[in-house]
Amino acid sequence: LDILRMSEMPLLAIEILSPKQGMDDVLAKFQAYFALGVKSCWLVTPALEAVTVYSSLDNFKIFGKNGEVVDEVLGISVPLAKIF
Fold first, then answer.
1. To pair with 43 at 20 to 30 A between CA atoms, which of 5, 32, 33, 72?
2. How far apart are CA 58 and CA 27, in angstroms?
């Protein structure tokens, strides 16, 4: 049986908030991701058609209502229409 393990963490983690999932659960995951070296975390909230980009737990920006998501840490921008 082969067990695959990542040798290095990804730069970006994306979580999609389900209707029954709590924010505390997501933020606990983000805390772990940042501790492991992830540079940026995105929280996609389908009910609000919004994306929150975290560069740390206390540094985040919310993007919604058309426009585009801009991740300054990774130099990424994505139109919200491509996500929703």
1. 5
2. 10
* Segment-wise mean pLDDT, segments of 10 residues, the chain, 84 residues: 71 94 93 96 95 97 93 96 92
- Residue 5 is predicted with a pLDDT of 66
CA 45, 48, 49, 54 torsion-angle sign = negative
Buried b (16+ CB within 10 A) or exposed e, 29-61: ebeebbeeebbbbbbbbeeeebbbbbbeeeeee
What strand order describes the sheet that includes 59-64?
12-16, 40-45, 50-56, 59-64
Question: How many residues are listed for the chain in this entry?
Answer: 84
* 47 within 8 A of 76, measured Cβ to Cβ: no
Q: What span, in angstroms and rounded, lies between the C-alpha atoms of 18 and 73?
A: 26
